[in-house]
Design a protein that fits this description.
The chain folds into 2 domains: 215 residues, Glycogen Phosphorylase B (Rossmann fold, 3-Layer(aba) Sandwich); 153 residues, 3-Layer(aba) Sandwich (Rossmann fold). It is built from 14 helices and 15 strands. Helix 4 links the parallel strand 6 and strand 7.
Length: 403
């Protein structure tokens, strides 16, 4: 299995999904070798063998794993890669020709693909499973080297990430991966329809496997953030796809009716500084708290301190965060342009662009305790039916169909 992030080297929902899915596969008797392009060293977790795809060499026909050496990380743009590469040059005595990393994001993806080919020659496996575009070329190379079938897992497309204005280079890699794969898994019908429309894929080649969630930790109660005021939470990458600007627009209108509501924006991303400036310019800075990136127990604390969680994504293939919120007992308001809206009935739903309706539903959830409690209670019961074990079962069915 090829992925571009895995806990503890994780920045978003893809790492959460890969962790949950591999646990489910392991419980069903499948051994997983998970390959990532970045990490401080190879990790042996409780349920998988985690390999860092760098500094590999062959000795006596055994694959020897060395420490990490790749600039790739989750949700990386070409500009971010270039910045990282230039920093390496600036703070070392090496010339550009001496640096082992690819000179740009796409060259590094190619380099990772060659590592995937090496790994495929020396590992024992039945099927290749590649998550999202950065790993598709590695999956293709592994298929060529081993002759084993390739399954690709589409968690998001370039159309989702860019608001409908895709990079041609990324699109080409996505299309190549989809057409090279023996089978495609999508996280929702929303995504299935998108790749049929934009990538020329036949419906019969696609299987929808919804994401899940684990209920294996103890929920705790947390005090409010020094106030008895209502709290509305946005938690996710602060980037175009997630709709943080629509969240702030709705927040401004809510505050016209309920001036004491506090809005928490948790996460990081390329629009982080812009959103801070926008909140100040709109005159709501004192009501909006930007926490930065959260992880671990702090994520659950944020959910449980909130009265409402809002996911106003412009294009969300699935969206695990609403499940996490309901798991913690907090009701959700989600965009209709999301895969998770296909599986949640007890959630408030709105078109991401409809600021008036988003405002109305925020106010209703905050003003009517019975509505809030019902959405939280019934939504949590729905979430309990969405397990990674079920997702893993469906993946095994897909594997069986191609092996």
């Amino acid at each position: 299995m090829f992925g571009w992030e895995f806990p503890p080297f994780s920045k978003g929902g893809l790492g959460t999904a890969c962790y949950g899915l591999t646990r489910g596969l392991n419980k069903l008797g499948s051994d997983v070798i998970f390959v990532v392009p970045r990490g401080k060293r190879a990790k042996q977790t409780a349920h998988i063998n985690l390999i860092v795809a760098e500094n590999l060499y062959i000795d006596n026909e055994k694959l020897i794993i060395r420490g990490v050496d790749s600039l790739l990380h989750a949700y990386m743009s070409s500009k971010q890669y270039a910045d990282s590469f230039n920093r390496i040059l600036a703070f070392s005595d090496s010339s550009e020709s001496d640096v082992i990393y690819g000179r740009d994001l796409f060259e590094e993806v190619e380099r990772y693909a060659q590592k995937g080919k090496v790994i495929a020659c020396f590992e024992d496996f039945d099927v290749i499973h590649a998550h999202d575009w950065m790993t598709y070329k590695a999956g293709i190379q592994a298929k060529k080297a081993s002759g084993k079938p390739l399954v690709i897992h589409v968690h998001a497309t370039e159309f989702d990430r860019t608001g409908g204005h895709p990079s041609q280079a990324v699109y080409d890699i996505e299309r190549q991966g989809m057409h090279s794969a023996d089978r495609i898994i999508t996280v929702s019908n929303y995504t299935k329809n998108m790749i049929m429309k934009h990538y020329g894929i036949e419906e019969s080649k696609i299987e929808v496997v919804y994401n899940g969630i684990y209920f294996d930790y103890e929920c705790k109660d947390y005090e409010k953030i020094g106030t008895d005021d209502k709290v509305v939470l946005f938690l996710g990458r602060i980037t175009l796809q997630k709709g943080p600007d629509y969240f702030l627009e709705a927040a401004k209108r809510v505050l016209d009716y309920m001036p004491d509501v506090k809005f928490v924006v948790a996460g990081s991303g390329d629009m982080h500084a812009e959103m801070i400036e926008r909140a100040a310019h709109m005159g709501i800075g004192k009501n909006v708290l930007f926490t930065g990136f959260l992880k671990g127990e702090d994520i659950h604390r944020a959910y449980r301190m909130a009265d409402l969680y809002v996911m106003p994504s412009i294009s969300e293939p699935f969206g695990i965060t609403p499940l996490e919120s309901l798991q913690n007992g907090t009701p959700v308001l989600i965009s209709k342009q999301s895969g998770v809206s296909e599986v949640l009935t007890n959630a408030l739903k709105v078109d991401f662009w409809d600021i008036d309706e988003m405002t109305n539903k925020m106010i209703s959830a905050l003003n009517y305790p019975c509505l809030n409690t019902t959405l939280a209670h019934e939504g949590k019961k729905e979430v309990e039916l969405l397990s990674w074990d079920k997702a893993a079962e469906k993946c095994i069915d897909v594997y069986s169909g191609v092996v």
